[in-house]
Structures are given as C-alpha cells and as structure tokens.
Amino acid sequence: MANNNLxxxxxxGLTNTYSYxxxxxxxxxxxxxxxxxxxxxSNLGVLNQTFASYLQNNFSAIDDDGDGxxxxxxxxxxSNRISTQGLTRAELTQLYASGASGxxxxxxxxxxxxxxxxxxxxDGRITSAExxxxxxxxxRMEVEDEFNNRRATDMSVFYGDSxxxxxxxxSLLSYKYKSNKD
Length: 182
Ligand SMILES: [Ca+2]
Ligand SMILES: [Ca+2]
Fold this sequence. Notes:
Layout (H helix, E strand, L loop, with lengths): L7 H17 L4 E2 H9 L9 H9 L1 H4 L6 E2 L1 H14 L1 E2 H10 L6 H9 L1 H4 L6 E2 L1 H32 L6 H16 L1
Helix pairs in contact: 1-3, 1-5, 2-3, 9-10
Bound molecules: calcium ion (2 copies).
One calcium ion binds next to strand 2.
C-alpha cells in the first residue's frame, strides 16, 4: 500500500466512463441518457455498469449547476471531491464487488476491515490520505510489536532452564519467532 493515491483507479474509472458516454451524447449527458446507455445492448461489455450506476445514482450531486446535464468540468469537480472527501464504505464495497476499483483484493479487504479506524475524522468517508496515515501508523506499531516480542524472547531465555540446553532453547525460540513473522 505504498501508493499515496489509492483511489486514483476510481477517478480514472469514473472519468473514462464519463468520456465514453459523453462521446455518445455530445449535447450533454442527461440522466435519461445514462439510463438509456445502461440498458442499451450495444454498450454491453463496453460500458462499466458500476461507474455508470454511480453517475446515475449521484446525478443531481454531480450536476453542480442543476441544468440537467453533466459537463466535463462537473466531472472534474467530482474527481476533486472524491479526492478530498473520499468514498463511503458502501461506495467502496460496490466498486470492490464489481472489480472496478483498481485496488488490489488484499488492499481493499484491509480497507473495508479497518474502515472505521482509518476514518479518523469520522465523516463516514475514507480518503487516500486517511489510508496512508493509517498505514504509517501500522508500520510504527509493527516496529513496536517486534520490539516487545524480542524483549519477551529475551526474558524467556533469561528465565529459562539454563542447566539443560539454553542454547537450544534460544535458537528454538528465535526460529519460532521468525516463522511466526513470516
Ligand atoms: Ca450541469
Ligand atoms: Ca474520513
């Protein structure tokens, strides 16, 4: 999860879907156009239904000036909003289920599992910045865990039965510790 802009795949998907639709409806993309495009069999396998459905369900929110069409500029505003405000758990789940998120399975399941912990401003939305901050925090805790584990191992050795085979005990513990980590 080194990528600082994990939701980039989402903006790209939405923008590409919009561009595809906009090319079919050069007079401006309306809600009716979206509904029609989603059921048009010629778009089958070409139009990403997840992103199209996102545009459909959030139409009035995306149509900033309320004129009934979504312009390229309004799509750009949407990308900026997603970037600064993030996505809800429901939106992420929907994108993940459709395979349209551009985010790997392991990363997405981690995000969904730790959504509430990652959502540090508790607005019900998660941003790339919140995901990155969580990762940095986890990396720090892993280092602390490792330190504590190592201390525990040292203690076992210290209080272990030194009369028999302290060297064997030590190497066994070290081995165990290593295999647990891997
Ligand atoms: Ca508009
Ligand atoms: Ca948040």
